[in-house]
Amino acid sequence: MFFRKGFLMKNQTAWHLIHTKPRQEKTACEQLERQGFTTYLPLIRQQGPTNQQIIPLFPRYLFIRLTAGLDDWTPIRSTRGVSSLVRVGMNPAIISEHLIKAIQQRADGDGFHKPATKKLTKGDRIRLISGPFAEYEAIFSEQRAENRAIILLNLIGKQNRIEVPTESFIICN
Fold first, then answer.
1. Rounded to an integer, what distance in angstroms lies between the CA atom of residue 50 and that of residue 29?
2. pLDDT value of position 51
3. DSSP code string of 41-84
4. Which ranges does the record mark as transmembrane (predicted)?
5. pLDDT at residue 9 in the model
6. What are the structural domain ranges in the chain?
7. Above 70 in pLDDT, residue 25?
8. What percent of the chain has pLDDT over 70?
9. Which residues, 6 or more positions from 102, have their beta carbon under 8 angstroms from its beta carbon?
10. Which position among 13, 58, 129, 166 has the lowest Cβ density within 10 Å, counted as fewest Cβ atoms?
11. Which tens digits make up the pLDDT trace of 136-158?
12. Hey, how many other C-beta atoms are within 10 angstroms of the C-beta on 166?
């Protein structure tokens, strides 16, 4: 399980998820670190049309490590770039330490993640990692443009053709 609802005991530390304003992940990360919080923003080095770009692995999200009873969580929501703390019901979602370590281990020596190098072929299984269908699995159908793809997503018992950005999914093993 990637995140769970949970209650932290006093002085217990856990990772949580911050939802940021559009394209303000780096700003939110910098501002939270200035306030003394520990954050983690996984980044991808991606070749753009004219130059290399550094973009978030999970657009509009970053991780924050908080200690119950010690950290003052109230300034988080008014921090520049932050939209909200992701919650399950009324409680902040707790992100698995195992998941954070797995993400960190997949980074290269410079701390960057690399986009999938495998050439996608029709029928490959993918998992959406951002957008309204995040965490859904789908089937790759065709490359539309350099950064767009057509996928087949099963919704309500019907297979739908949807065009999505290529950075919004990862290849399933």
1. 27
2. 73
3. --EEEEE-SSSEEEEESSTTEEEEEEETTTS--GGGGGSTTEEE
4. none
5. 60
6. 12-113, 124-171
7. yes
8. 88
9. none
10. 13
11. 889 999 988 777 889 998 887 78
12. 19
Q: What is the mean pLDDT of residues 155-164?
A: 84
CA distance 125 to 114: 19
CA atoms of 97 and 81, how far apart (whole Å)? 24
Per-residue pLDDT at 54? 85
Q: Residue 8's closest CA among 97, 78, 98?
A: 97
Tokens for 29, please give them. 């990360």
| DSSP single-letter state for residue 32 | H
Give the architecture-level CATH label for domain 12-113.
Answer: 2-Layer Sandwich (3.30)
* CB environment 76-111: b (16+ within 10 A), e (fewer): beebebbbebeeeeeebbbbeeeebeebeeeeeeee
How many C-beta neighbours within 10 Å does residue 6 have? Answer: 12
> What kind and span of H or E run contains 4?
strand 3-4
Cβ atoms 140, 126 nearer than 8 A: yes
**CATH code for the structural domain at 124-171:** 2.30.30.30
* Single-letter amino acid, residue 13: T
Amino acid at 65: R
